[in-house]
Amino acid sequence: MGTVFDNSVEEEDEQRCRGQVAKVEAEEWSWREMKLRAHGTDTQRTIIKEAHLLQLMAPLWRPCSSLPAISLPRSPAIDPRNRSSMADPFRFSSLHASPENDFCFEFLQRWENLDRFIPNRSAMDFDFAHYMLTERGKGKENQSVVRSQSKEAYLKLLAETFNMNRSRILVFKNKPPTPVKLIPDEFYSSVHQSKPSKPLRRIPQTPERTLDAPDIIDDFCLNLMDWGSSNVLALALQNTVYLWDASNGSASELVTVDDENGPVTSVSWAADGQYIAIGLNSSDVQLWDSTANRLLRTLRGGHQSRVGSLDWKNHILTTGGMDGQIINNDVRVHSHIVATFRGHRQEVCGLKWSTSGQQLASGGNDNLLYIWDRSMASMHSRSQWLHRLEDHTAAVKVLAWCPFQRNLLASGGGGSDGCIKFWNTHTSACLNSVDTGSQVCALLWNKNERELLSSHGFMQNQMTLWMYPSMVKIAELTGHTSRVLFMAQSPDGRTVATAAGDETLKFWNAFGTPEVKKAAPKQSILGHFLI
């Protein structure tokens, strides 16, 4: 350990001293390398070559010519002029004398009791040193002008490598260097740049609006509410279908069926928001034009009992009945039945076409979930299912295709099951299962975020908002006093309507305000009807 420096010695002299010592060391190592190239091993050559890093320091220091030149005695063990006395296997000769060396020895005589300056190996960049030794002179004629930002980064990195910015001495390790950007920000892809995090969304715990829904049928297997693309909500109460216009808050009656056909057991809007299908307890299905309040046609002869589930795929209306049958109806032609799916042994409670229209999911009161492929549908033979899924232990009514991931289906089980399950419908694999602790009555995906909303029955009769895919609860919304049987989402994805056995209809801001998107033009999918 060397003596402590006198505080009167300026830092500039100290740094200049280090540079000259390092230069002497560099010349000595360079001379050794010359001998090793002829007589040394590969490992020895590599070690000596790495030591060339010290040579890069010499040009960075200005020689001081104000001091007289004298000789500095060295100990016999390290004196380069007395190599013959050393037990050195490489048999070095004397070090070539130069004015710089004489100056360095003279300057070091002031600190003859101090230890030699030894570079901190752990802080040295040998990859950079190797590049400077081997590649430095290549291709200079083709180099372009270095940009100022890159030049500053290079100089900073060079200074840190050679300990030029060190303000401390006699330390075991340098402080970690400040990261240097060798590539300007404009050359980085925007994908790798940090994005500001979204502010946390406040989810109101109370409904925005509550309406009466008297005489609503409290039946788990029915589907009595749907929200169309024209922003009109349809709700069936016993024999009557009501329309509520969300744009102005007005309500009107669309149709009241007679007792022979009633009550209404299902409703479903077509994609254009103008036509609506109404399933009846009598097994008939009616098609209505909501703008003209006119019955267009009645589909008969397909089912033997009530039609509790409906879904559209372009001009195809798919119906599911208590008889376990699933029928594809082409509403444009007189002979409307174009395909039949048979698999369920009990009532079909839920039907949903995938976003692509390639697959159909059906859930039944027999605790079964089927995945059907459109190409396998046939009018003359029994269509074979693509997948038959038996994991649920209660009726499967709730089906929801993921809007942002293809072939991902969420399903919910009845009271004795209470699970939300996620399926890869391409492989039939169950990706996840979450036990909610109560009957799952409805499921809705958030159209703008990776979230899922579920509604439940006894005991809490709540709605639960989940983060997907972690399935962490974000919020729970309570307000109904009976199981929340039906949910529907507004066209913009912001508002959720819920209807329950407590005969109330509530509107919730569960999904927040979405980003404004340009609305796609609406096109009629029905064309003309042959009645």
UniProtKB/TrEMBL annotation:
WD repeats: 257-298, 341-373, 477-509
Keyword match Cell division: yes
Keyword Cell division listed: yes
Domain of life: Eukaryota
SUPFAM superfamilies noted in UniProt: WD40 repeat-like (SSF50978)
Residue ranges annotated for the CDC20/Fizzy WD40 domain, each copy included: 211-508
UniProt xrefs under SMART domains: WD40
Alphabetically ordered keywords of this record: Cell cycle, Cell division, Mitosis, Repeat, WD repeat
GO term, biological process aspect, one: protein ubiquitination
Molecular function GO terms recorded: anaphase-promoting complex binding; ubiquitin-protein transferase activator activity
Similarity-based family: Belongs to the WD repeat CDC20/Fizzy family.
Annotated function: Component of the anaphase promoting complex/cyclosome (APC/C), a cell cycle-regulated E3 ubiquitin-protein ligase complex that controls progression through mitosis and the G1 phase of the cell cycle.
Protein name: Cell division cycle 20.1, cofactor of APC complex
